[in-house]
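Support reply, case 0932

Customer input (verbatim):
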Amino acid sequence: METTTPAQASGWWDLIFGWWNSNDPDSIIAITSIVIAITAVIPAVILFLTYVRDKKKKETGIPASEFAEQLIKQEKEHARDISEKETQISELTNAIEAMRAPEIASQQRRATAEEALRQGNTKLADAIFAESEETEAAKSTEHRHAAAKAAKHRGAIAYLNSPKAALPHYQRAVNYNPEDAAAWNRLGTLKYRLGDPEGAEDAYRHVRKLGEQSRNKATVAAALGNLGLIAHTRGALDRAEDYHKRSLAIEEALGRKEGMAADLGNLGLIARTRGELDKAEGYHNKAFALDKELGSKEGMAADLGNLGLIAGTRGELGKAEDYYNKAFALNKELGRKEGMATQLGNLGVIARTRGALDKAEDYLKQSFALSEALGSKEGMATQLGNLGLIADTRGALDEAEDLWKRSLRLFEEIGAKPKVEQVKGWLQGIEKNN
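Our regenerated output:
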């Protein structure tokens, strides 16, 4: 059982320096000269200037978009692909900007909440938006959109610590405003990640419907791509291929290279599942070329990992290992724990194939630990299955059976039918030997 992941791509936001660092040095010199002339008030002036500067830094700090990206880099959970990552950054940016609005809370409370966020404490920021949500929800129907925004802000902040904790906030957001495609998409992403494919599919169908009603082609393309991921997980390859090809056609028409790379990568995974390795390699090479052109390290990491899967399937273990190591290094550089877990799992498969069972076990346990921390049922199920194969090879059949039963339960929960059948086959093999 090898680890696979949907194709990923990403874009980076430009960093912007704060107001204070952009002051004109000549102006500072002029002000200093005046202050020197008024020696009697030097201490007061210095204290005042320091207070103003520090207050401004505490109140606004760096731009909200940069602050959001910094928070995401230090979070426990990381995005799967560009559409999710960009959405996450955008929503967290909106939450930070909303929290900085004077009308939301007192200046001191806002500054304290932002500093707490910087330290990883989300409680104060959540409390501010909880009050806003409650106030707006208690008003007339026309205020429910404002309540939806507050709920989304709470979801974006909660996601920093736990995707599971973010889920109810986005659920309330779509209840307040059923026409919010972004909230539906986020809800679908969370449900898919947390092992609820039926709920995710329902959310993505809402996204698609809203995109078609508003004639927003980018929204439709995103929904089709996400529906393709669910179909692939279920083993419905023809349906998954159709979704991704339709999404790709829209992305090409819009000139969205990020989306094109993601769809090409996903089509490559489908081709590989069918055993069409040359076709799969062609898709992944095209995706890699686009991601490299975009400077997307996340996308390149995923593409390298997928090319490694093809090399491994062909028995080219050294080539596969090289791809996986490069992919792991990029994911580690980016702080992407999910990508790191995927490649650790792949390296474990290589080690097991070579007979280095202790080394393989170490890789797989590291991958499992990361997947468990991320709440990724698919990742946990995959590595439990792989660890079971190692136990089976060692003749520890009771241990293998226990690991495979745990793997089976998780695969059943996420509706991964092909994997369910695979693990059932392993368990039947143990029964025959007994």
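We compared this against your earlier run and they match. Two observations from our side: Residues 2-60, 72-82 have pLDDT under 50 and may be disordered. DSSP finds 21 helices and no strands in the chain. Please reopen the case if you see a mismatch on your end.
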